[in-house]
Amino acid sequence: MSGALRAAGPRWLWAAAAAALAALLGAWRWGGGRRRAAGAGPGRRGRLRRVGTVSGLFVYPVKSCRGAAVPRAQVTPMGLRSGELRDRFWLVTKEDGHMVTARQEPRLVLISVGCENGYLTLNAPEMKKLCFPVNLPRKNPVQNCRVFGLNIQGRDCGDEAAQWITTFLNTEPYRLVHFEPSMVPRKSKDIINLFRTTDEVAYPDCSPVLILTEASLEDLNTRLEKKVKIENFRPNILVTGCSAYEEDSWEEILIGDVEMKGTVSCARCILTTVNPDTGVLDRKEPLETLKSYRLCDPSQQHLYKSSPLFGRYFAVDKTGTIQVGDPVYKIVQ
């Protein structure tokens, strides 16, 4: 063998070995990705069919106040979380503990909620920004509250927060309370019997997660003279890339490493008629138009009565993290 060939030999062997290693790593990565997408996770059955893409994530820290759009969120058994912001873990109440929502005080939708260095922040038109700690002093009293007829506790956020909300709404005295992890949540099954005994919420109406598709909103807007926004409907997860009302048929879905189970459709009320930009309650649209074509089947009237359906509630089977851009997969049995 010539010197040139002897010198080339080791280089050729090294190149071949490197190529083989690269191919092996590529196959491993591909296989891992395939396994993740194919869903060999614990308790999962069936195959996956992609049905859309996450286009928006929203957390509503204070019930009925403005939502916070976030790029990613943890999905916990009791709903979405982004840092210290947890979905509907704060609640405005009357002094006797009964909940107050935008149904009674539509201007609540004008209050923006954020978090800075462990402090919850409230902003509203013509109001000075309010800051108070997420983790409240233990000396703050725990209040007994009523949310849709069920008892639940909340720690009072203090006189300054109460005065701020009372001043802004300017109708009667109100308090603000916070649900803490040591408190007992409401059982979704006590609200709607189709939920499981393990499904629990703090101050949401009945379910940890609400999903809506962009196509459903677009279809509704083709029927309206005055278009409405996604903010009228307050979903947690907005999905694009599918047909209108396709979410109605999603029984089990996978997003990122999160598995969720469809429970019931979202029965809509006059809160959808609150203009999210002005805080003015219309009482008619888009509710009247939805009633013209989105009423339930007569066999389900015991569940939904005369309320139109728009969006779908989900319970959480497997927790994890999701982000805007994640594929949405339907688990097909």
Automatic annotation (TrEMBL):
InterPro entries: MoCF_Sase_C, MOCOS_middle, Pyrv_Knase-like_insert_dom_sf. Keywords: Membrane, Transmembrane, Transmembrane helix. It comes from the Eukaryota. It holds the Pfam family MOSC_N. The keyword Plastid does not apply. Residues 174-331 form the MOSC domain. The chain crosses the membrane at residues 12-30. This is Mitochondrial amidoxime reducing component 2. The lineage of its organism: Eukaryota, Metazoa, Chordata, Craniata, Vertebrata. The gene is MTARC2.
